[in-house]
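Database export, one record per block. Field names are fixed; values are copied verbatim from the stored entry.
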Amino acid sequence: MTYGDAPREPIPREIDIHRELNRMEELVLDSPRVPLSRFALVDEERLLEQLDAIRLALPAILQNALNIVHQKDSILQETEQYAQEIIAAAERRAMEILDEMGLVRQAEREASQTRQQLQQECTVIREELLAEMDQIRRQAQQEADDLRQMAIAECQEIQQGADDYAEHVLHDMEQHLTAMLTVIRNGRQQLQGTDMDNTTRRLG
């Protein structure tokens, strides 16, 4: 039987190339061997059918391979683009984080400066209050001393006035008493003189 002597069975459009190659291999291996040689008697019709099947399947297989390659390239491009987008997003986020960290550091510096300024202001206010309290204390002490001195002076003045008044009253009383004693003595002397005159008259 030669190629083209009998109609071949229709070959399916989609076949497994590996399976067809395995069938061709089995066809060769199962063919009768020529004695004392490396040759085999292969069924030409079946061999040609296998070759036609493989030949017809090759374009679809090659197209599938090309499609796979294109898909692979597209997937690689999409993957690379996605990776670039991820990298760009990561870089943007890193810059945002750095900016945020810079803002945080700036806020920390400002907070530290504010805290130091507040501490300095509190120290100044405390020192001013202490100085003012000390001044008030000294002023109050001075006023208390002045009031005490004034009270002592007034007491001394009142005491001196009382002593002077008592001295004046006693002096007046002494003068009155002295005058009264003088009057009394004079009266007694007059009485005694009168008595002596009367006695002399009686005796005479």
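Remark 1: Confidence is low (pLDDT under 50) at residues 1-13.
Remark 2: The chain has one domain: 17-157+159-167.
End of record.
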